[in-house]
Write a structure and sequence with these properties.
The protein is an alpha+beta fold. It is about 25% helix and about 25% strand. The protein is built from 8 helices and 16 strands. Strands 4, 6, 7, 9, 12 and 14 form a 6-stranded antiparallel sheet that branches. A 5-stranded parallel sheet has the order 2-1-3-15-16, with helices on both faces. Helix 2 crosses helix 8 and helix 5 runs parallel beside helix 6. The protein is globular and about 55 Å long.
Length: about 325
Amino acid sequence: MLAFGDSVTLGVGASVPERGWARRVAAARGESLVNGAVSGTQVAEMADAVYRIAVSRIAEDSPPPDRLWLAGYNDMRFWGCSPSGLASFGGSLAALLTYLALPPEGRVCAQSPVVALSGTWMTTPVYGGVVGRYSNQQGASLGAIVTGSTVYVGLTALTGVDAGGDAAIVVDGAEVIIAHCSGLPALGTGRPYAPLLVRVDGLAPGPHHIAVVVRSATGNVYVDWLGGNGDSALGAIVWLGDCLAMTPEWYGTFAPYAAGSSEAVRRFRIVTRAVVARLRGDGLAIRAVNVGDAFDLVRVADGVHPNDVGHAQIASAFLAAMAGG
């Protein structure tokens, strides 16, 4: 079993590590746990763990291990009700959920030898340097054949206006959309980049050639992976818990993560559930876990992390969802 998230998923606040929610879930299911959570991270920053772990042998086991993710807590605390923050969160969440849910047969990393390259492309150093390529050469292209009625392109975009380049997404020789690899809001840690997803649906089932073509004269275009939903039945199940709430008196503390509110929690849950619904409609095995209704804000004195009771409540919500299939 693989877990992703922030300090809550690491088990911070529990009296001992074994009482953290992810460890409780794995123990109850009789499975081992590889915990890729990192304290203080927003969803976009989970790309490091998602891409590194999901390209490793651990994630290629058959059948593939379930993935657990409690997402959005630090994003909510940092961005509050910011429309650009909510949009960036949704784009990064969609990219990483799709990658986690697709089987190895359904995705092609940009560094794969089966990818056809035209022009100059270099290895992207971020995410451990294990997935992506980038180019700033106008007209350079990167492409591969994937299968499905919906196809995906995982990109990385930079924060700031005009920081990155523009690319055409071409499916079976027809240009379908221009993707902009710039313009995202900065993360709380100051990281200047985040993953995003381009999704093209309504295609005939079967193989399709996807190409990413650099259109801009300046700025880098970062391509991480290409994929399709044709083999989605072979993929892992991703169990995604929605954004936790805080007791009201703590929302304005712990700058720069001090923009949260009950309204922000509501909006992040809406975005999370919309992303899950859209990807489930593609046939991906992503399941929403309604942690918010099960969690009654029992917390430790720091105002941020659940205590043993809170971790048990989160684990119970995941286990109930998993029992229901």
